[in-house]
Write a structure and sequence with these properties.
Helix content: 25-40%
Oligomer: single chain
Low-confidence stretches: none
Number of helices: 11
Shape: globular
Order of helices and strands: HHHEHEHEEHEHHEHHHE
Largest sheet: 7 strands, mixed
CATH class of one domain: Alpha Beta
C-alpha cells in the first residue's frame, strides 16, 4: 500500500486537484434520489485535505470527514474550519450504525486492503434510505504514466514501475466488480458508471506532489540523492514543457468508475 505519511500539504496542492475532477458526479450520486444534499448528514471517508467535504458543505450538507493520516487532516482543518474532521479509517469507523444520510469515498477503495470490508463499513454507518457513493481508478495504465516514464528515463533515474498485466488487477476495480461489492454489502439500486474529466494543472503545482513524496513517482523522488533529484526535476521540466499548452498548463484526460447504492 502507498505511504501517505506527512504528504498532506503536498497532496493538497497537486494530486488532490486530479481527484477533484470526479467530485461533482460523486456528490450527485450521493444526493439521489432526493436530488439535493441540503440538510443531510454526510460522511466523507478518506477525506484527504477535505475537497469532497467542502464541496458537500457548499451544497448544504452537514459534513463529517475522516482520514487516517494526520497531515491530511491538518491540511483539511486549515482550509475548512467549519467542518468536523476526525482521524479514522476503513474498515473500522468510530460511528454507530445508521448514523449518516449519505456516505462518500473518493478514490479510497483502491487503497484499502479489503474493499469488500470497506464497502460493508460504508453501508453500516448509512441510515436506511441513505446513499453510498464511491469512486475508484479503473484497471490499466494511468494517463500520467507516460509523463512520469519519460521524465524518469530522461533523468537516468530508471524505469517507472510497470502496471499490472491485463487480468492481474483485482476484479473489484472494474465496473462489474464494484457492482458486486456493493450488492454483497446489501445495497439496493446499485449502479457503476464511468466519469470523465480533463485534469488541468500547472507543471510547478504537480511537481509539489512529486517533491512531497506523493504517489509512486514521489516515492522514487524521495529515494534519490540530491543530484538525482536535481536531474529528475530538470527532466520533468523538459518533458512538461513539451506537453503543456500555449498557456503553460498541462491538460490530461482521466476516467474513473463511480459506484453507488442505497441502504435499504
Amino acid at each position: 500500500m502507498a505511504d501517505w505519511s506527512d504528504t498532506g500539504e503536498a497532496y493538497a496542492g497537486s494530486f488532490a486537484k486530479l481527484c477533484e475532477g470526479a467530485v461533482p458526479a460523486l456528490l450527485d450520486a450521493a444526493a439521489r434520489p432526493l436530488g439535493t444534499l441540503d440538510g443531510l448528514r454526510l460522511l466523507d471517508v478518506g477525506t484527504g485535505p477535505g475537497t469532497v467535504a467542502a464541496a458537500a458543505a457548499a451544497r448544504g450538507a452537514i459534513v463529517t470527514g475522516v482520514d487516517p493520516e494526520e497531515s491530511m487532516l491538518a491540511a483539511a482543518r486549515r482550509r475548512h474550519e467549519a467542518i468536523v474532521f476526525l482521524q479514522a479509517s476503513l474498515p473500522e469507523l468510530p460511528f454507530a450504525d445508521d448514523q449518516f444520510d449519505a456516505v462518500t469515498a473518493n478514490f479510497v477503495l483502491n487503497h484499502v486492503p479489503d474493499p469488500a470490508l470497506g464497502v460493508g463499513e460504508l453501508a453500516r454507518v448509512a441510515a436506511p434510505g441513505g446513499m453510498i457513493a464511491a469512486t475508484a481508478w479503473p484497471p490499466g495504465n494511468s494517463p500520467l504514466r507516460p509523463l512520469w516514464r519519460d521524465a524518469l528515463e530522461l533523468s537516468g533515474a530508471g524505469a517507472y514501475p510497470p502496471d499490472p498485466a491485463p487480468g492481474d488487477e483485482p476484479p473489484d476495480r472494474t465496473q462489474d466488480g464494484l457492482v458486486s461489492l456493493f450488492r454483497e454489502a446489501g445495497l439496493a439500486d446499485v449502479k457503476a458508471e464511468l466519469v470523465e474529466w480533463t485534469f488541468t494543472i500547472a507543471p510547478h503545482e504537480l511537481w509539489r506532489g512529486v517533491e512531497g513524496g506523493v504517489a509512486t513517482v514521489g516515492a522514487i523522488h524521495r529515494s534519490l540523492d540530491a543530484s538525482g533529484r536535481r536531474a529528475l526535476r530538470a527532466a520533468y521540466d523538459e518533458v512538461t514543457r513539451a506537453r503543456a499548452g500555449a498557456d503553460g498548463m498541462l491538460r490530461i484526460p482521466h476516467t474513473a468508475i463511480l459506484a453507488s447504492g442505497r441502504r435499504p
